[in-house]
Amino acid sequence: MKIQKMLPVLSVMLTMPITALATGASAGELLTAAGEMTRATAYISAGIPYKPEAAVSNTEENFSYTAPAPAYETIEAFTAEEVSPPETAETAETIESVHTEEAAETMKSEADAFVISQNIVEFNDETDRTAEGTNNGSIIRRHYGPSNTGEYITLKSGAQVRNLTDESDETLLIAASQLPELDIQLDSAEPQVLIVHTHTTESYEPYQRDYYDSSFPSRSRDPGYNMIAVGEVLAHSLAENGISVVHDGTLHDYPSYTGSYDRSEETIREILEQYPSIKVVIDLHRDAMADSYGNRIAPHAEINGKSAAQFMIIAGCDDGRFNMPNYMENFKLAALIQNSAELMYPGLAKAVLFDYRNYNQHITTGSLLIEVGSYANSLDEALYTAELLGESMAAALTELSE
């Protein structure tokens, strides 16, 4: 069930007591129009406290990684509605005495879900995201729709899977019709989903435009503009729809890109040990698409009159190299989310890529890699997609709670 309002945000320093901070807008309401996003807006859109007086002034080149700003953790609770005054707010426990049994059951179904955001380090990359810049090449906005080529199979919703393995199409269609063996608890006091970023610093165009400036950075340690911002919106969207989430912002690709997946595997294993309730692990990325002429490609779809970055799910298949015997459970989850997205927001998803890949999907079932757009998409497109993806994922995961 879609939840309309947020309770006050609880911001927690890892070594300090919980401190309450107030907020009054949903993640979706915090998104702004294309081309108008400032640093502050991007932070707020991602649910990250914006503190200009504490912004790091070091540039990307002279910042010392060995002495980063302190990491923080936020816990955010989401409920069905705001009740005034707070002292008399009805809960699932108290409402039974004053309302019908049906109303009580409705209230229970709208209990709190939450987001734990951790290991997010404040950093200002000092990039001017309002400048026109230099036109070094074209950005081509392209919608990826259904394909009739032999490597694509079509699911019941009309969504597709690109099969680059030796698994037969019949086998995949049968698997796609089955639910993965995952027991999701709605509005749980324990997190159900983990969002991480192996390539945390991946970032986007500053606003929607038809050219790119090659000097504009496609990576950033600023959490208001990289994959952390997208992950925060996705986490909030899931929580607003009853799925409790841990979102980890550890930088796995800085200062060294090499070994990113080894480092993210360590992070995933540590968090799964801390939160054994987690059933689904999403490694959230963006793609880097270009053609042979030097044009950069922005996969996009128009949803409800707004431009969104198309997303793509990657589910790995094991040919004996990856120690991933339960890979078909991951594929079932991918198909479930793909069907949900196609039914709710037709055209938002590119075909699922099913290929001989690992991407740490051997760690646990329920593991997927999702790419939100490409480096030619704008940040606001990616944030909008994260909101819609969260709604689609929540609807899919709700099927696993019944």
Defining key terms:
four-stranded mixed β-sheet; 402 residues; Aminopeptidase; alpha/beta; twelve-stranded mixed β-sheet; 7 helices; globular; disordered N terminus
Provide structural commentary:
The protein is α/β, with parallel strands linked by helices. It has a single domain, classed as Aminopeptidase. Helices cover 23% and strands 22% of the residues. It contains 7 helices and 16 strands. Strand 12 and strand 13 form a beta hairpin. Helix 4 runs parallel beside helix 7 (379-399) and helix 6 crosses helix 7 (379-399). It is globular and about 50 Å long. Mean pLDDT is 80; it is low at 1-43, 45-73 and 79-109.
Question: How would you summarize what this structure contains?
Answer:
This protein is an alpha/beta fold and 402 residues long. It has one domain: Aminopeptidase (3-Layer(aba) Sandwich).
What is the fold's blueprint, element by element?
Blueprint: E1 5-13, E2 18-21, H1 39-45, E3 72-79, H2 101-109, E4 113-120, E5 137-142, E6 152-154, E7 160-163, H3 169-176, E8 193-196, E9 211-212, H4 227-240, E10 245-248, H5 260-274, E11 280-287, E12 296-303, E13 306-309, E14 311-316, H6 327-344, E15 352-355, E16 367-374, H7 379-399
Helix pairs in contact: 4-7, 6-7
